[in-house]
């Protein structure tokens, strides 16, 4: 052991309890697992009972894949999708018997790890098919696989020519236990975009050229396009986490996240005071300004400063004024009675009394997906069950 690690462990032995450090937490992300479970149930109901997987890539869109998957698994979810093999490996302990599909497929050299953790590659190239076929031959038993066919997004998926090559020579798929055929919609949140129907028709055609297997097309927004899009398995991510399936329309899903940040200081400032970097906010009247422990390093975009978004406290919206700093933002709390907001209080910054994920996305010129997945590692993630025992 070198000197630095020995000093570190010596310090650790006398370190204060985790709770004491947590008491000083700067910002907390509360994640309602029951709302996620309820959202999956709502999607299944909208699809007339078709089963739903859960897409938990990117740490369940930043909300904690293991806790999210465990909660969904307890409610009967049997199929999970991740993007990377490492995500699948990390998820395995949380859902020991579920199917875990790896959207980015299998890379040369990773076949053994895929098998060891029981991960199912979602294969989208002929090279990966031969890799998996050879591994199956070496093991002397069929290996589970899903196939991704491209129906018009031109991102991942076997082309029509490649699907035809597989149809012409069934031995190419020898040793593959085909569990699922999928494709992905490029514009499902635009309900009138003709690409949706074109992709659906193409999917019907291509899947029939492959060996019979359950099919999956609909992401979150795809669920709302109608029965023709549901096939055998829904594949939502965003909607589980409360993101609206259609921009600008009422959101039928339950809100899932609330981000709140500690008040570091409350100041009453005279008129004509410049606040924060570059003095981008100047008070026009005496103002109460609260400095909050959250910044762009936590994924709160700099584009949301200067009165484009609202924090919230005690039912009152508090405009976020001035530039967003790396570790802090400033909110105008003048609307609250004097003394109501104090150092150490937690002010909502996303959800709760603040603007929600979709409103913030609009204000920042992005989509709710990016708001959630940007939320940083420094936030304290707290999973809870709003509805414990009552979801039945
Ligand atoms: C991310 C992803 C999904 C989930 O999409 P949402 O829009 O979040 O529901 C489904 N399928 C594939 C292939 C994906 O990459």
Automatic annotation (TrEMBL):
Protein EC: 5.1.1.1
One Gene Ontology molecular-function label: alanine racemase activity
Domain of life, source organism: Bacteria
Residues the record lists as N6-(pyridoxal phosphate)lysine modifications: 57
Record keywords, A-Z: Isomerase, Pyridoxal phosphate
Residues reported to bind substrate: 155, 326
SUPFAM superfamilies, alphabetized: Alanine racemase C-terminal domain-like, PLP-binding barrel
InterPro entries recorded: Ala_racemase, Ala_racemase/Decarboxylase_C, Ala_racemase_C, Ala_racemase_N, Ala_racemase_pyridoxalP-BS, PLP-binding_barrel
Its job: Catalyzes the interconversion of L-alanine and D-alanine. May also act on other amino acids.
Family from the record: Belongs to the alanine racemase family.
Name of the protein this chain belongs to: Alanine racemase
Organism the protein comes from: Rhodoblastus acidophilus
